[in-house]
Each structure stands twice: as C-alpha cells, then as structure tokens.
C-alpha cells in the first residue's frame, strides 16, 4: 500500500469517526428531549452536581490558570480531561459542542461522547452573556486570572443556542413563570446599569468610535460572527444567511451607511477565527468596522441592527434598537425582535426585562476571580467595571497631568488608533496624550481628530514641515506638562492597562529619575497580512527582577536595554540635564545614554506591558540611505563624547566597563550593520569620508583592541574570536584604512603586507591584531615581485606529530600567538593550512591541510611555503608544521616526501597508552570532536583503529621508512609533565630559540578536557541523535560544557574523567609493553619508555551521577540547537533512544569529518546503519512493554508526551499484543507525524524496516 493509499484510508476513517461521534451527541440530545424531567429547575440540578465528583472536558491549564478557573469553584471535586482517572467518572461536565461532520468540533466534547457509557450523566455548559473583563482568547494568551470567565450557563438537556432542541432556558421562557415585582425591579436596574456603563459580553474593546463617512443621515449595523461557530450552526445560520442579511440591509436602507462589525474573535485570532465577511473590503455605502470597539458605542450611531445569532442582538435590543434576526438566537421568537426565519419551540411573548431576568439572573451562574463564593449579577457588573482594560472616557481635561505620553505620528494610519486607545485605557486617568504629526502622508491625523472629540486629554501637535521622529519628540517635550514623560511609537501599544500607574508608583516610592518597563513581546508583522507571530526579546532575560533607586555605574546590566521608550522619565530631570534628541532618526542611544549617565536614581520594574511592532515600513526596516548613515555616525560620536566627558575611558573608572561594552556594540553595528554596507554602495569620496570619520571617533575614545568586550549582546562572538573587531580598532588607531577596509569586508590581507608588519617596528597592538586576524583569514603567499630570496642553508621543517592529548593544542596556540616574534627569531609556523573549530577558539586541529595536500600530491601548500620563505627571507631557519592529525590519521608519513625539499624532521610526543586512550575516548565521546562516537569504551578499545593508535612502535617504524633515525625525535611525556605543561619548554628548546619575551597562551587555550565520567556518558548518548550539521553539533557540545560548569558539576572542580577501569588499563599496558621497550632502547638508550607506571587505584565506575536539572538543561539545549521548529525530545525519550542504541553495532570512529552528521553517506555506511537498526529493533523488543511504547512514540512523533504515553500504554494493554507486535502497533497507530518530519537516513531505514 502506498503513502497516498494510507492517506486516503486515514481520511476515510477520520470522516467515519466524526460521523459516529456526531450521531452519539445528537442521540444524547434527543433522548434528553424525550426523557428529561419536564418540571426540574436547572439551578437545583446544578446545585446537586456541585456535590458530585465530576470530570470536566477541559485540560488542567484551562481550569487552573486561564479562562475556566471558576469551574473549580463551582465543582470542587473535578478532574481535568488530561488528568489520570478522567475517563472513570460517571458525571461529565461538557463545554463546547460536537458539530456535524466537516466542521471542527470541540476536542474535549468529542472525547466525552466518544467514551460515553450508558450509565454516564452529562451536564452541558457554555459562557453566559456576561463572560469576562477581557475575552477568552486574551485569557488564554496572557494567563491572567483576572480574565477568567465570570458567568457560565448549564443545561442537562441541550445547549441554549440549539434552536431545534429546546433546553431548560427555552422551556422556562415557554412556561407560565412570571416575574415578581422585586425580580422585575432588579432586572430593570441591571439593564440600566449595563446601558449606562456599557458592559458587554467581552469587555476588552475601547469606547472610541472611528470616523464614519460624511453625508449619511442614518446608519445601520450588520453583525458578523466567526465562521462555523456552534451558535451559528445550531442557530440556523450559514454562509447564505449572512450573504442575504447583508444584501437585505443594503436593499432595505437605501439612505443609510451600512456598518459591518467584525467579531472580536476574528480580531484577536487573525487567521484562525475568520468571520463570514472577513474577505470583504469597503465598497460604496458598506463600511467594515475591523477595529475593536465597544458595541454600545456603535449602537449610539445606528438605528437598526441585523444579526444572525450573536448576543449583540440582545444587547442592541436592551439599547432600544430595532433588531432583525436572520438566524434563531435564544432571544428570538419572544416578540421583541423582528424574525426573518421561522422560530420553532417558542410559544409565548416575553419582554426584554423578562428575558434578561431568566437568562442573566436565573440561568447563568457567576463567580468573580477575587472570591471563592458564588456571585450575583450585580457583583459581576462591579467586577467588570473595576477591572476591564478600557473605561468610558470621562470628559476631563487636566492642567497638571501626572504623565505626558509622547507619540510621534508619521505613516501609522493602520496602528495609531490602537496605540492611543491603549493609553486611554490606562487606569491612571490623570494623563495627557501628545500625538506629534510630523507631516504624516496618510490619514492618521483624521483618526487622531476623531479621538480628540471624546477625550480632551489628547493634545495633538501638527508640524508644518517634516523634522524626523527625534526632533518631533523634542517638540512634544517642550509642550509637555506632566510630572513624568513616557514615549510610545505610533505603531506600538500598551498591553497592560495598569502599566503607567505602577511605573509612577515605583518612581515616587524610589524617588527615581527613570523607571524601566519590560517588553511583553514583539509583534512581527508582514505589511500585507497583519500580525503573523509573537516573539520574545531575548534582552528581557537580563531584567527578570526589580531594581529600586540604583545607579547606572553599579548595574551594567542596564546596558542590555535596547530602547529609550520603555522608560518613564521625571520631566524635571530631563530639563535640568538638557536631555534631548540630537538626530532626526536613529535617535535612541544618545538620548538614553545621556539620561542614564546623569540619573542619580534608576528603577526597573518586572512589569512587561509594552508591545513592540516589527513591520516592513518602519524606520528600522525600510531601505537605508546615506542620511541614515549620517545620523548613526553622529550618534556614534555623541556616545563616545558623553562617556569621555565622564572620564569613562580611564581604567578603573566606574563606567569603564559600560564604555567598553558600548564601543564594542557600536563597532559591530557600524561595520556589520547597514552603515558600512550602505557606504560601500556609494562613490569613492563618500566611502573614504565615512571610513575616516569612523576612525576619528574610535581614536577619540582612547580605547584599544584590548578594551573590546566579548559579550553576545555587544558583538558577534565568532568575529571577536577571529580578531575582526580588534583589527578594525587598531587599524583606525594607526591610520591604516587599507587594513580597516579589509577587516570590515572580512577579506584576507595579502601575506606580503602581513609579513612586512610582522618584521617591522609597528605598534605591538596592531601587529597582534593583524596576526590574530590572519590566523582565521589567511592569504596564501604569492610569488614576490622582486623574485625569490636565498634560503637559509640550515633550513629545516619540523613536523610536530604530537600524539593527541599531550598538550599539542597549547603548543599550537603558543606558535599562533607568538608568530610575529618567532619570525623575527627565525622560526615560522605558517598561518595557512590550519583547521580551527568554528565558535570554539581553543579547539585547533593544526596544519591538517598539509596532510591532505600530501596525500593528493596537491602542490598548493608546498608552493605557498616556497613563496612565504621568499617573502620572509633567509632569516627563517625553522618551519613548524604541527597537527595531531599526523598521529590520529593513517598514512601521514607521506608528508615527508611532500616536504622533502625543506629538510623534514619528526618530533613526536608520546603519552602512556592507557592515559591516552582514556583521554581520547572522552574527547571523541564528549569533547566535541567531528569524529564523535557513541560506542562504549570497551567497544571502542576493541576497534582496529584504536588498536593501531595504541601501537607506538608501528607508528615509528612507518616514519623510519621515510626518515633516518637521527631525524626522528621521540619524547615520552610523563603524567607529571602533562600536568605541569613541560612540553612547551621542551618544544622551545628543540626550536633553538630563547623563550624570553614570548607570551604563553591563557589556561583556557590548553584544550584540557575536564569532564566527569557521568558528563562524558551524557554527551555520548547524544552523539547518535541527528544534528542539522557539524556546526550545530559543535555548538551543542560547547553549550553542554558551559552548562556543566554553571551547574557546579564535578567537572567544575577540574576533575578529569576516569573512564577506563584499572583492569582495562593493565591490559593495555601489558599489550604494548614490548613495543614500548623497543622505543626506549632505540631512541632513549634505556629500558623503559615511561617512568611512571602506577595504575589509578580508583575504579572508573565510582563516578557520581549528574543532577536532574543539569540533564534537563542539556536536553533543552539539544532541542533548541538540533531541532529548531520540530517537536522537542524530553529526557524520557532520550533515555529510550539511548536504550535502543546501546546494543547496536558500533563502528570505529572515522576522523576528519567523515562521520559528521552533515553531508552524503556511502552505500557501505547505509548498510551498516541498516544492520544497526535491526539490532536496535531486537533490543527494543526485549524491553518491558511500557518502554517499547515510549520508544514507539519517540520514533513516530519525535517526542514522548507523558500524558499520551499513559493513554497509549492503556491502549496497548487492552489489545493484549505480543511483544513483537507492540512497536509495530504504536508506529501504525501514531506514526503519521513522522512522515511529515525531516527524516534522517536512519529514520527512513526505520520506516522501511518496520513496513
């Protein structure tokens, strides 16, 4: 059967399932219609249910955190749908509905009716007409308990909106029940209050009506709803209904403007909850009201309201409007609406007051988030009025506002109303709002003018010429009257209505000049499509807690703040220190920095109430010009000037770190942001002008390359490690525009230029910066124009074949760091042909390219050596080619023939074989080697590759076939020598030079792998998992090592992994004893190769286990780095994966990237993987069934959800499957997700094998 056939079969089965559950649901409703007690009171029924143990068709988060928290107050013995034992209940409370096949039903409701048994009881529920201070989507998104549902309706017969199946509310209204005088009075009072205070079902919509088209004497309203909602489907409305409703409104009101109001769900869940009219646009008399607005504000300007089944129809009826129903809502058919469709099952006339009493007071049950007791409708109205995010705007104009909110307005027509409305909604009412119209090209001012009519706190400023947003803000600052000033861009908004009140309270309590607010999220938007996603600003992680009345100097973490507009400023403080914007655009940094440098008291709030919109047309994201570069250059100069005036360039100054951080950040932004790229597109004079100006600014700072800071928020770590920023700074300081331009373009610098500076009296900092840069971007030496100089007759090339884990990396870093000084002493270690691990500067592979060229007989490296010698002259007596690859890779002795013309010699350092094996295994398994392995130590030791490397004798015999014995220099390295680093002294002695004046690398460059056994084992378990490429794997390992250190694991105490047992070590030493004796006799003239032969007394198995939180952090790092955009793998899933891999056949490590996760794989490798998978399947089938299920879910879905795991375990147990069939069953039943995943070779083979 093909994948297409499988898909068709699955779709057919899904359709059958939908039809089956729908029949069950409707069958239940029909039985309740027939058999439910006719005279029962739903309030009594619900009260009886409150005493029962019930299961609710919503997840635990819904009940305990978001919209449904009041349900646990109503039903105190309730079990959520995702909690254990949910299916065992006899009483189910069900929200949502099952819709006809083809529609999306509520999953909790579906699950209830799928598992419903004959003896089970069901109580249906839905939100009432007073639902929330916000909306149900806001409650889910913000998880704010204040936004929980306030009122639910319950019914044991049918949902109230099911027009063909009358439930308790319809039966009550059909009955002879009549209101008492007190009940009528209470209902009228509640209606009057709703109208006066404009309380709706959802209450997070502003009260500001947008401008409508002039020239119409009247308007009518057409109410849109969410497509395929239960209330429309069961309320007798479909697409034809909504089409006819709009056409009727147009036809019946030829003199009116037709206002179509979008449903709130369509606004808050764009792309997910579309309305019936979502695709339409304004045309003729029809105007689509897509901005959120309180319904009662709209009722003020219309005289007729057309609805299908929306509750807005009843709200309009309360407001005295003529309501026309094209569907069958619960309030239709009682005599106070015009009904265009027959209304079944409604036999009495009822007034608006009667309907209100029975639906709002009798039928709906209320709780408020601030109380555990059941609430009255009056208490709910109190709560809504007190806590809703928008309040009806009082006609107040304030002379002494507490806060002046400054909003530049230019090209923000789509956003300005939302922006200003979010300020109007602030609970701090004593404010002024200052929109500054900077010659906006659109209709933004019309929107502002409309808002001013209802809110005199808005004081617009209209500029007659465009000055840019920086200077526009200055105009507003001049006009501001508030005690404090807050800035907001016209396309951003305030999400928290209490934000300004809290910031002002903190400012007064702390006597702060500045108070910082956090960013809720960034709203990433496509210009045409509206919001597409929310993303977090990573810099907010630096501001988790609060600071109260601190100084900038003592808290450099404030440097991570990206914006000036998320601070509340004391206005007198800004005036006293003359803090103003100095550029038209790109104005943020100097303004903020001047404020921070002069503030005596700064506070930071934990509140995150701002939303920053990222859109294509904004200043930050439009195409850039030379004018933008000019503004940025002025900012750069201003920032340096501000720090310099404070003396921050002096070492030890309290602001020195801040200055260095900021300068590092500016160099990154100027040369690797848009300024440099834009300048490079200009003419030559412009390029030269800006390069000169940037150099002047760097020089004026007084800082050097040594002052740059490597922090991820300031610079790119790779460019920092590669010396790019350092060379830019030093080239600027020493007036070398050629070097600065090369570094900014990430271009290699000609070897002739590099060597010329190395062998000169140039500034040592410039030479050091150039050396570091050239290490990472070397240019192969070219034939000098003046011809080749004579070689030194004593020239030799030392091939440093240091056996791995003998300190070779430290020697290589020493050679790198001292290259200029060594050249002046006659020793040259080429900067080219070297492998360096990206992002891990301590990991260096040495001159591996020379060995590759030698094997291919590619003359490139040899010619480069000849040209380099010609450039450097006869002073060079020794060339050093150093690489661990000469020991780890086979056949490297061919390098002798390749370098025959340079008089080659071999220098080899040997370490005791058991220590080498222990360290090399740890490196391959946990150190971040491209030849990573996932096999166990004993399997790795048994491979042919490892056995060959343990045989030092055979290694030397191969080299002796190419070199005479006197040119082979053997150095055994004792354990104490490794620890003390004596190899470097020996190496320098072999070079025949003086060590004085040479610089040793820092300790972190020793590349000493200090991991515990548990850490190595943890990383080994990841080596068999897929990574996007080698870079991702190396990034993951580096992150893991950082987590080990940060978590205080044993490796943090400089602990070396003791992986091999004492017995394994003895076996190794015994196996190599004779070979080592031969080496000692031939090269050292003694009996023993190593003097220290004691075996570690502590067995390897005693290593401590890692803490659970450390393992969790490692798993999280893997998911972030290796599985972006894919389902996460949790710890249990990882363990299951490790179990399956543990018994698989392990191949020898293939070095130099051949085993890397990226790239193509040979047919032989695929065959090996196939055998491994077969063995893995055998291993899986030996596990307990529960673990087989976990492995199956991991393979099928890429993760193991604990809740789903429990469900599938029960599912498997009920099937009574044999062990051999469990895995196949799980994969067949739950394996659709894997077909859509990005499959590796192994995963595809797994699919084939299980087929």
Task: Detail the topology: elements first, then pairings.
Layout: H1 3-35, H2 42-50, E1 54-56, H3 60-64, H4 71-74, E2 78-79, E3 91-95, H5 107-115, E4 121-127, H6 136-142, E5 151-155, H7 168-174, H8 181-197, E6 218-223, H9 230-233, H10 239-252, E7 256-261, H11 264-268, E8 286-289, H12 295-299, E9 304-307, H13 312-318, E10 322-325, E11 338-339, H14 352-363, E12 364-367, E13 374-375, H15 377-387, E14 403-409, H16 416-424, E15 431-437, H17 444-454, E16 461-462, H18 469-479, E17 484-487, E18 493-494, H19 499-510, E19 514-526, E20 530-535, E21 547-550, E22 567-570, H20 571-576, H21 588-598, E23 602-614, H22 626-645, H23 656-672, H24 674-679, H25 684-701, H26 717-721, H27 724-733, H28 737-744, H29 751-758, H30 764-776, E24 796-800, H31 808-817, H32 819-824, E25 827-828, E26 835-836, E27 844-846, H33 848-856, H34 860-872, E28 878-882, H35 885-888, H36 894-898, E29 904-911, H37 913-926, H38 937-941, H39 944-950, H40 952-960, E30 968-973, H41 975-980, H42 982-991, H43 1013-1020, H44 1030-1046, H45 1062-1071, H46 1073-1084, H47 1108-1122, H48 1131-1142, H49 1163-1181, H50 1185-1197, ...
Helix pairs in contact: 7-14, 8-14, 8-15, 21-22, 22-23, 22-25, 25-27, 27-28, 27-30, 40-46, 44-47, 48-49, 48-50, 49-54, 50-51, 50-52
Give an account of the 3D structure.
The chain is an alpha/beta fold. It folds into 6 domains: 172 residues, no CATH class; 145 residues, Rossmann fold (3-Layer(aba) Sandwich); 213 residues, Spore Coat Polysaccharide Biosynthesis Protein SpsA, Chain A, CATH 3.90.550; 140 residues, no CATH class; 216 residues, Rossmann fold (3-Layer(aba) Sandwich), CATH 3.40.50; 128 residues, no CATH class. The chain contains 54 helices and 30 strands. The strands form 5 sheets. Strands 14, 15, 16, 17, 18, 19, 20, 21, 22 and 23 form a 10-stranded mixed sheet that branches. It has a 7-stranded mixed sheet with strand order 2-1-3-4-5-12-13, sandwiched between helices. Strands 8-7-6-9-10-11 form a 6-stranded parallel sheet, sandwiched between helices. Helix 8 packs parallel to helix 15, helix 44 packs antiparallel against helix 47 and helix 50 crosses helix 51. It is globular, with a radius of gyration of 38 Å. The protein starts with a helix and ends with a helix. 45% of the residues are buried. GO terms for molecular function: hexosyltransferase activity. This is Capsular polysaccharide export protein.
């Amino acid at each position: 059967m093909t994948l297409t056939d499988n898909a068709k079969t699955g779709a057919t089965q899904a359709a059958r399932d939908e039809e089956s559950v729908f029949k069950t649901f409707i069958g239940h409703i029909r039985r309740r219609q027939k058999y439910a007690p006719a005279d029962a009171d739903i309030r009594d029924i619900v009260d009886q249910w409150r005493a029962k143990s019930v299961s609710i068709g919503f997840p635990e988060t819904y009940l305990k955190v978001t919209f449904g928290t009041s349900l646990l107050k109503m039903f105190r013995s309730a079990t959520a749908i995702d909690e254990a034992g949910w299916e065992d209940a006899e009483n189910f409370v069900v929200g949502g509905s099952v819709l006809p096949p083809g529609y999306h039903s509520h999953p909790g409701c579906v699950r209830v009716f799928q598992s419903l048994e004959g003896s089970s009881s069901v109580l249906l529920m839905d939100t009432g007409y007073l639902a929330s201070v916000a909306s149900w989507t806001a409650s889910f998104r913000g998880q704010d308990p204040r936004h929980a549902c306030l009122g639910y309706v319950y019914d044991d017969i049918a949902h109230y909106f099911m027009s063909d199946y009358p439930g308790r509310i319809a039966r009550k209204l059909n009955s002879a029940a009549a209101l008492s005088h007190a009940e009528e009075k209470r209902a009228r009072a509640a209606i009057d209050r709703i109208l006066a205070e404009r309380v709706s079902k959802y209450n997070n919509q502003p009260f500001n009506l947008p401008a409508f088209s002039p020239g119409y004497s009247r308007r009518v309203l057409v109410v849109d709803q969410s497509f395929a909602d239960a209330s429309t489907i069961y309320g007798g409305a479909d697409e034809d209904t909504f089409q006819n409703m709009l056409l009727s409104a147009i036809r019946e009101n030829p003199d009116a403007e037709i206002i179509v109001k979008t449903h709130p769900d369509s606004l808050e869940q764009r792309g997910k909850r579309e309305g019936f009219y979502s695709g339409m646009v304004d045309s003729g008399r029809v105007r689509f009201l897509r901005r959120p607005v309180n319904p009662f504000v709209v009722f003020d300007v219309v005289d007729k309201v057309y609805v299908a089944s929306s509750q807005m129809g009843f709200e309009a009826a309360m407001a005295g409007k003529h309501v026309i129903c094209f569907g069958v809502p619960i309030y239709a058919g009682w005599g106070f609406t015009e009904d265009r469709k027959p209304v079944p099952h409604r036999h009495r006339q009822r007034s608006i007051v009667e309907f209100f009493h029975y639906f709002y007071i009798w039928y709906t049950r209320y709780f408020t988030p601030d109380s555990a007791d059941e609430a009255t409708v009056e208490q709910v109205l109190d709560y809504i009025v007190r806590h809703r995010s928008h309040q009806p705007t009082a006609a107040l104009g304030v002379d002494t506002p507490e806060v002046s909110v400054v909003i530049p307005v230019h090209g923000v027509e789509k956003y300005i109303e939302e922006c200003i409305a979010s300020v109007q909604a602030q609970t701090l009412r004593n404010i002024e709002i200052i929109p500054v119209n900077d010659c906006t090209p659109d209709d933004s001012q019309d929107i502002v003018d409309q808002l001013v009519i209802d809110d005199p706190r808005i004081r617009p400023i209209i500029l007659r010429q465009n000055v840019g947003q920086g200077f526009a803000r200055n105009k507003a600052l001049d006009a501001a009257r508030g005690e404090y000033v807050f800035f907001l861009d016209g396309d951003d908004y305030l999400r928290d209505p209490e934000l300004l009140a809290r910031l002002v309270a903190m400012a007064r309590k702390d006597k702060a000049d500045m108070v910082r607010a956090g960013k809720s999220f960034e709203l990433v938007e496509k210009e045409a499509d509206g919001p597409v996603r929310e993303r977090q600003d990573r810099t907010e992680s630096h501001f988790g807690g609060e600071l109260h009345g601190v100084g900038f100097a003592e808290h450099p973490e404030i440097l991570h703040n990206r914006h000036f507009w998320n601070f509340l400023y004391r206005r007198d403080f800004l005036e006293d220190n003359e803090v103003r914007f100095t550029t038209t655009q790109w104005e943020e940094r100097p303004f903020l920095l001047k404020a921070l440098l002069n503030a005596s008291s700064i506070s930071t709030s934990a509140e995150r109430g701002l939303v920053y919109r990222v859109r294509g047309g904004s200043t930050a994201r439009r195409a850039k010009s030379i004018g933008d570069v000019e503004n940025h250059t002025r900012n750069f100069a201003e920032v340096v000037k501000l720090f310099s005036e404070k003396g921050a360039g002096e070492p030890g100054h309290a602001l020195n770190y801040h200055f260095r951080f900021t300068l590092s950040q500016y160099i990154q932004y100027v040369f690797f942001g848009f300024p440099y790229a834009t300048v490079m597109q200009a003419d030559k004079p412009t390029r030269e002008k800006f390069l000169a100006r940037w150099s002047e600014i760097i020089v004026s700072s007084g800082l050097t390359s040594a002052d740059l800071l490597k922090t991820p928020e300031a610079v790119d770590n790779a460019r920092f490690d590669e010396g790019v920023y350092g060379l830019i700074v030093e080239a600027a300081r020493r007036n070398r525009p050629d070097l600065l331009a090369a570094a900014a373009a990430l271009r290699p610098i000609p070897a002739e230029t590099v060597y010329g500076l190395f062998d000169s009296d140039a500034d040592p900092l410039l030479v050091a910066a150039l050396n570091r840069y050239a290490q990472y971007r070397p240019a192969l030496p070219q034939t000098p124009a003046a011809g080749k100089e004579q070689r030194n007759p004593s020239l030799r090339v030392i091939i440093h074949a240091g056996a791995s884990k003998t300190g070779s990396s430290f020697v290589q870093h020493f050679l790198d760091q001292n290259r200029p000084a060594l050249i002046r002493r006659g020793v040259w270690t080429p900067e080219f042909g070297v492998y360096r691990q990206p992002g891990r500067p301590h990991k260096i592979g040495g001159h591996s390219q020379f060995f590759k060229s030698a094997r291919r007989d590619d003359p490139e490296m040899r010619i480069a050596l000849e040209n380099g010698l010609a450039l450097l002259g006869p002073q060079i007596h020794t060339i050093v080619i150093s690489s661990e690859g000469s020991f780890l890779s086979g056949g490297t002795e061919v390098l002798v023939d390749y370098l025959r013309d340079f008089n080659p010699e071999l220098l080899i350092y040997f370490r005791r074989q058991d220590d080498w094996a222990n360290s090399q295994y740890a490196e391959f398994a946990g150190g971040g080697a491209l030849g990573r392995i996932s096999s166990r130590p004993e399997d790795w030791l048994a491979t042919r590759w490892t056995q060959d490397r343990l045989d030092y004798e055979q290694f030397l015999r191969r080299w002796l076939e190419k070199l005479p014995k006197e040119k082979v220099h053997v150095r055994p390295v004792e354990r104490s020598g490794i620890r003390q680093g004596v190899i470097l002294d020996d190496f320098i002695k072999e070079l025949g030079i003086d060590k004085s004046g040479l610089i040793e690398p820092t300790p972190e460059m020793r590349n000493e792998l200090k991991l515990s056994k548990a850490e190595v084992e943890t990383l080994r378990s990841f080596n068999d998992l897929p990574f996007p490429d080698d870079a991702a794997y190396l990034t993951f390992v580096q992150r893991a090592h950082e987590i080990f250190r940060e978590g205080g694991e044993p490796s943090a105490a400089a602990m070396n992994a003791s992986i091999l047992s004492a017995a394994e070590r003895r076996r190794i030493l015994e196996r190599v004893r004779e070979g080592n004796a031969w080496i000692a006799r031939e090269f050292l003239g003694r009996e023993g190769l190593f003097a220290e032969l004691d075996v570690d007394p502590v067995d390897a198995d005693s290593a401590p286990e890692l803490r659970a939180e450390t393992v969790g952090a490692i798993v999280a790092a893997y998911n972030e780095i290796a599985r972006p955009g894919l389902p996460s793998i949790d710890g249990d899933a990882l363990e299951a994966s490790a179990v399956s891999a543990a018994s698989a056949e392990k191949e020898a490590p293939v070095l130099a990237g051949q085993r890397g996760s990226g790239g193509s794989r040979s047919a032989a490798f695929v065959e090996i993987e196939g055998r491994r998978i077969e063995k893995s399947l055998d291993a899986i089938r030996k596990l307990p069934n529960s673990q087989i299920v976990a492995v199956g879910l991991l393979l099928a879905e890429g993760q193991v959800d604990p809740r789903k795991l429990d469900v599938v375990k029960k599912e498997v147990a009920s099937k009574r499957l044999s062990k051999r069939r469990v895995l196949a069953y799980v994969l067949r039943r739950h394996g659709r997700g894997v077909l859509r995943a990005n499959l590796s070779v192994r995963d595809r083979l797994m699919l084939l094998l299980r087929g």
